């Protein structure tokens, strides 16, 4: 069996499975923990790593990158997603997020939740701690009642009536 096929089965579970098996989740979390080590965060000292799994089994990692002009920084989740999109991927299965927080699971910021939502609401998000423990959610659970690409296709009023 090829290395790629073994990796896909480990990450994806049995063929056509929508859920990852336990070792696949742990592997994705491990990759997010490793990505955290590359974080550039001289101002906040808050390291974050992410590992994004595409439907075909490819993994893209990302870390947060801060900037002296604070609002120009980019989060780990958006880094991983941007790397994937820049390589032609748009269909994601899961993302694992890691930080140095020991007492609570890391959670993506509002901007990252909306960024993830752009690519669907039903894919998995694994919020982890440094010890590898995690909670599983979906993008929809992180951002209920969200606004997405399909909302832009809905009928709109293009002029306002003079009176209500």
From TrEMBL:
CC cofactor: Zn(2+)
Q: Provide an example Pfam family for this protein.
A: dCMP_cyt_deam_1
Q: Where is the active site?
A: 77 (proton donor)
| Span of domain CMP/dCMP-type deaminase | 23-150
Q: What InterPro entries has UniProt attached to this entry?
A: APOBEC/CMP_deaminase_Zn-bd, CMP_dCMP_dom, Cyt/Deoxycyt_deaminase, Cyt_deam_tetra, Cytidine_deaminase-like
- NCBIfam families hit by this protein: cyt_deam_tetra (TIGR01354), PRK05578.1 (NF004064)
Q: Where is the signal peptide?
A: none
Q: Name the chemical reaction catalysed here.
A: cytidine + H2O + H(+) = uridine + NH4(+); 2'-deoxycytidine + H2O + H(+) = 2'-deoxyuridine + NH4(+)
Give the family from UniProt. Answer: Belongs to the cytidine and deoxycytidylate deaminase family.
Which cellular component, as a GO term, is one annotated location? cytosol
What name does the UniProt record give this protein? Cytidine deaminase
Give the EC number(s) under which this enzyme is classified: 3.5.4.5
Organism of derivation:
Pygocentrus nattereri
One Gene Ontology BP term is: pyrimidine-containing compound metabolic process
Q: What does this protein do?
A: This enzyme scavenges exogenous and endogenous cytidine and 2'-deoxycytidine for UMP synthesis.
Q: Please tell me whether the keyword Zinc is annotated for this protein.
A: yes
Query: Which residues are noted in the entry as Zn(2+)-binding?
Result: 75, 109, 112
Question: What's a single GO MF annotation on this record?
Answer: cytidine deaminase activity
């Amino acid at each position: 069996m090829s290395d790629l096929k073994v990796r896909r089965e480990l990450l994806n579970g049995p063929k056509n499975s929508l859920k990852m098996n336990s070792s696949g989740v742990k592997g994705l979390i491990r990759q997010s923990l490793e990505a955290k080590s590359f974080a550039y965060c001289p101002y906040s000292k808050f390291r974050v790593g992410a590992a994004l799994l595409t439907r075909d089994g490819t993994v893209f990692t990302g870390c947060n990158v801060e900037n002296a002009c604070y609002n120009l920084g980019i989060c780990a989740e958006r880094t991983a997603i941007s790397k994937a999109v820049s390589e032609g991927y748009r269909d994601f299965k899961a993302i694992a997020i890691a930080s140095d927080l020991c007492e609570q699971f890391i959670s993506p910021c509002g901007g990252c939740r909306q960024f993830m939502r752009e690519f669907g609401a039903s894919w998995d998000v694994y919020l982890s701690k440094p010890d590898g423990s995690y909670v599983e959610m979906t993008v929809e659970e992180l951002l209920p009642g969200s606004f997405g690409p399909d909302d832009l296709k809905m009928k709109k009023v293009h002029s306002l009536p003079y009176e209500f």
